[in-house]
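Fold it.
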Amino acid sequence: MPEAHHPLSHHNDVPELIAHMSKINGYHTQLFSQRYAAKLKATPDGDGNLLDHMTIMYGSGISNSTRHAGNNLPILLLGGGPGRLPSGRHIAYENEPSLANLLVTLMDKMDVPVDHVGGSTGKLALDSLADL
């Protein structure tokens, strides 16, 4: 990719620039998956592996960078949590909640008492997650 990452992120909805940005994001995701998550999964820990006993949030801090908005973000949660976050699901919210709301929700699931983070407006409804 000849363009620098940050200027490229201001693509102004130009399809060629979006394609370049997608290629960079794909590369980053591949690195994360193959070099980090796969190693965690391959490392024995107790009755499972390291990935079974942790929660990792991976994603982008921005979706459409032309908008400069912190909502509708591509976020991946992986790991067993342990047992606090069931996996194998895709959750899409219609009202595009803030990432801060996800952080408050995750902290609640991990028994970290917080009322808000940044500009959060509350917890996300995660009906299918185990209440702990």
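The first strand starts at residue 44 and ends at 45.
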